[in-house]
Amino acid sequence: MIITLCFCIGDIDGVLNSSTSIPIIQVLYNSTGSYTATVVMTTVLIVLCMVGTITAIAATSRQMWAFACDKGLPFSSYIEYAKFQFRPGVDIPPNAILTTLLVSLLITCLNFGSNVALDAIISLSNAALIFSYMASIGCISLKRFRNEPLRPRRWSLGKWGAPINDAAMCFLAVGFVMNFFPITPMPAPVDMNWAIVIFLFVIGGGGGQLFG
Predict the structure, then answer these.
(1) Are 33 and 52 in contact (CB under 8 A)?
(2) What residues contact residue 117 under an 8 Å CB cut-off, 6+ apart?
(3) What is the pLDDT of residues 103-138, one digit of tens each?
């Protein structure tokens, strides 16, 4: 999909300065040359975003509920409540879902005051995803380094596990660092990539909650 987008994007400055204010719509119109096709394809993208948002809220609320059950979040006793019966035999955590929705809405509202703040939080998601991979692989590598036995598993890389994990860590480390670079050298504050500040704030807050 990215390759197709890059092939069809055309004049980058024209797309970024489009009268639609939404570059992807201009790319679709440049590619099709038809208002009807652009509207149809944009509608498909909107539907996909809606479906993706529903699944993301469902997954995030379950993770939040799991952390709350382990007392890993503030107000865990409220978030971990899961006595709402969706259907017989199926309970859902309503407070975790509502908390996830509320936090998502509050983050979205940042766009009304500052695009820089919202862009920083959005750019953090990729760095946080890579960091989660690094944490998982790092734990396995640490156990191998300490010569500790790994937990039973259904599938193993065998003797190739250690070098593959090390190569993955090197690759992820480069991507992780690059996520915090600005677009251009010596950027102005409005063009600065503030993801590193948000990342350190989240790590600090989580550490304080864990060890506090």
Answers:
(1) no
(2) 110, 194
(3) 888 888 877 877 777 777 777 888 888 999 999 999
